[in-house]
Amino acid sequence: QAKDAGRGCFAYFSEDLTLAARERIALESRLRRAIEQQDLRVFYQPQVDIISGRIIGAEALVRWQDSVEGLIPPIRFIPIAEETGLILVIGEWVLRETCRQGRQWLDAGLLPLTLAVNVSPHQFRRSDICDLVATVLSDTGFPASQLELEITESGLMDNQGNATEILNCLRGQGIRLAIDDFGTGYSSLACLKHFPLDLLKIDKSFIDDIPHLQDDMEIASTIIAMGHILGFKVLAEGVETPEQLMFLQEKGCDMYQGYIKSCPVPAEEFVELLRNQQRLVD
Ligand code: C2E
Ligand code: MG
Ligand code: MG
Ligand code: MG
Question: Which of 71, 145, 189, 273 has its CA 20 to 30 A from that of 105?
Answer without folding.
Answer: 71
